[in-house]
Amino acid sequence: RGQDELEKLKIAIQELDPKSPNLTKFSDLPLCAATASGLRASHFEVLTDIQKAAIPLALKGRDVLGAAKTGSGKTLAFLIPVLEKLVQAQWTEYDGLGALIISPTRELAVQIFEVLRKIGRNHVFSAGLVIGGKSLKEEADRLGRMNILVCTPGRMLQHLDQTAGFDVNNLQMLVLDEADRIMDMGFQSAVDALVEHLPKTRQTMLFSATQSKRVSDLARLSLKDPEYVSAHEEA
Ligand code: ADP
Ligand code: MG
Asked: Which residue intervals define the domain Helicase ATP-binding in the entry (predicted)?
């Protein structure tokens, strides 16, 4: 099941020109049927500039460093590649943690999670939040079953250090959202320590509203030969 769709997708992604001027809508992108229908059902149709710039490169497996101001649509610019990465890897609900999304605050993590639930509604992947507020043990019990986690840095590091049997060795994709705020809030060392736990062969996307020296420091530590993309459109 789905092998033909997967093969066709792989070819379409290979042939995709990430700079093509003809990419306007989500339906112009080589996305699996589940993601495409999730986007349609959520009434997303036209790509924003940052989505146009980042998603094709990410689909092709590149590490991406993206900068675009608040409200420009960065969430979908990484959530779509996360879903497609797991589809390409033929990830199943039994394969453990495939993608980790790091957010500076609980509130932003919750927002990301809600968008993921909307556009990911037709996928089988399980997704969870790791933002504290529950006992470590209660969170830990659910971790092993999750395919996609949206987390805050401190809480995630606590689990990586303390939760026995939590396996992150097959992680396919790491996302750092609001990297500038992650740095401003003093999470540099937590993120460094967190990245130490993760496998080196993975795809990484890093997004921020601003380009700063500290963001490029973080990028240097976590990304491999990244493509820099930015967008300064009016939202
Ligand atoms: P950012 O993370 O860059 O601040 P968000 O991802 O939170 O931006 O998106 C800002 C708003 O724009 C949200 O309400 C979101 O639903 C909406 N949005 C994002 N992408 C699109 C799109 N392609 N078409 C229409 N609305 C979009
Ligand atoms: Mg955002």
From this structure: 55-229
